[in-house]
Amino acid sequence: MPLSSCSMTPISTAPSKGGLLSKFRNAGQTCVCTNRIIVQSGIHDAFIDRFASKVSRLRVGSGTEPGVEQGPLIDEHAVRKVEELLQDATTKGATGATGGHRYSMGGLFFESTVVRDASVEMRVMKEEIFGPVAPVFRSRKKKQSRLPMIRNLGWQDISTLKTWPGPIVSPNVWNTAWWGSRPGRRDTALRNAG
To answer: What is 2-183's CATH number, 3.40.50.300, 3.40.50.1100, 3.40.309.10, 3.40.640.10?
Structure first.
């Protein structure tokens, strides 16, 4: 599932806390986690710099410790899969903006990772990652292509949706300024074609 951000997204607020949560909740291991981030070329560099800075400050550790924002992966197989996806991306031209390795505390902990220069040939752009890896793809198109599942859009004011460049063809559209599951809160899609 992709997260899209465009030139109408204020760089001062992108990526929002919701955008971070939609990728790194439960170390990226939920079925509704963002798998890839698509950013318009005009804001790509500023976006990735801000995003990588925020991601590098996520606190990794045991979920029983106060303030921890990302825990471990489920098992050794999951850690190896993340490593394989990153190796594939690197051999195909990606670079790391932050993270990219097993966490220094050992065990099943993996650094919160942002991949720069992601391309459609890479496994991280085709497969469900199920780990704390956010590949960022530079979009040079004004209109986004049809994307499956849920699309997370980056905007702060819902009125911005009226000026989105092109049709949004997706079963569900969420606003990352407020999107995110929390106990006691029912999530609602802005548009549901299901």
So the answer is: 3.40.309.10
Q: C-alpha angle 12/95/41, rounded to 5°?
A: 45
The verdict on pTM exceeding 0.85 is no
Nearest to 34 by CA among 123, 175, 135, 110: 135
Residues 177 and 98: their CA atoms lie apart, in Å, by: 23
State which amino acid sits at residue 72: P
What is the distance, to the nearest Å, from the Cα of residue 91 to the centroid of all Cα atoms in its chain?
21
Instruction: Tally the residues of the chain.
Output: 194
| DSSP state string for 35-55 | -EEEEEHHHHHHHHHHHHHHH
Kindly report which listed range (34-38, 109-113, 135-139) carries the lowest average pLDDT score: 34-38
